[in-house]
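hey team, just a heads up i'm posting the complex here instead of the shared drive bc the drive is being weird again. everything in one block, sequence lines first with there labels, then the predicted structure for the whole assembly after. its two chains so it's a bit long, scroll down
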Amino acid sequence: MKTVLPAPDISRAIVRIAHEILERYDGADTITLLGIPTRGAHLATRIAAAINAIEGGEVAVGTLDTTMHRDDLRTRSPKALLPTLIPAAGVEGRHVVLVDDVLYSGRTIRAALDALGQIGRPTSVSLAVLVDRGHRELPIKADFVGKNIPTSRSEIIKVNLVEVDGVDGVTIAEGGVK
Amino acid sequence: MKHLLSISDLSREDAILILDTAAELARISDGPMKKLPTLRGRTIVNLFAEDSTRTRISFEAAAKRLSADVINFSAKGSSLSKGESLKDTALTLQAMGADAVVIRHPASGAPFRLADNQWMSGAVINAGDGTHEHPSQALLDAFTIRKHLGKGANDLAGLRIAIVGDILHSRVARSNVLLLAKLGAHVTLVAPPTLLPFGVESWPVTVSYDFDSVIPQIDAIMMLRIQQERMQEIFFPSAREYSRYYGLNRDRMKALNPNAIILHPGPMNRGLEITAEAADSARSVIVEQVSNGVSVRMAILYLLLGGAPIEGGIN
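-- predicted structure starts here --
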């Protein structure tokens, strides 16, 4: 197992993504960050904190669970649902930025787009991820990327965050086919 | 979990998983689009061999909100009324490719027969069997109580709940007693001795014949319907006398502690076990129980049918 993104790099990536998001949308007023639980939700909170530190406002941030919209539901035992918390302003007319930890097949993001469609019709949707490891199975790409990490399918990428894992760091390990 | 047959074979963890899932689904149901694609292509049969309004409609709404196909059939107007056996009905449903059967039946244990005899491969959900159990009702009652009184806890630890009335004929009471005790609540049954079931002393409850002494000490009160259709004998001298001793009326409402809530599984006999004033008061969560019922039943259907098929039964 080897660390490919140590804690300071994660912090820098989050601040950079925050700047890029602000640049693209010309300020924080129309942005709604929606993190995909579990780690995407914590990353969204951190990006929101970084945006607030730059702009001095309070950017809208929430979570979006994708479980009920996944296309692989029938291949595993039913999972407990995770919280979907939409900020009071809703998503209508907002620039929604989906936030996740790792972009891999793209299937989670497809499910997230469906889950978002359930809630309303945003002006635009973009995607921020901490790690893009390649191997897409759907025509989906990230708009804001912390780090591109080329991998083979047999490797296992693990994002650790203080909020969940007690430590920050992205590791890569050899493993069975995931 | 493959079936939901009774609360007695549901673990505390599974019960909490159902309640938590229902809470998330309730939040989705508050949004503009209520329908989820999760059970698209699955067929759910509502087999109701006994009358029902709330439970059948609630299961139907839950299944439809998850995009399942629903087939309703009730005893009246089907071959059940011609005396077709449960086995032949089950084989028919199996042949039609039912992924789940929601069954209500006047015979206690009918859902178990359906599930255990390898007649069909789908999930069986007990929607009330005779005087035995009604697990989805107990889950929605627990959900409602937790939502109002849970103070953020995931169970009902320390809450004091009274179940009042016709305990003897009530499958709702039996399922509730088991579930509420599993979730850590203290349950008191209040009824005349004639309406208490045999062996109640082995249940995890306190029993009282005196409603007025119980009232001030409880957080939630569940009134049960007097089930005249199941009463072949006389269990109390008159309806008026029953009302006076065991009905929820204005004076007893005043004696309730200020945060206490009132539940009733419905249908109500207004004026018998509960006055209109109590049923329609701000403390009453009776109508809310119905909407919570849809969320809880969505959770049950999702957890039983949403994942990979579970091995067992015929294939």
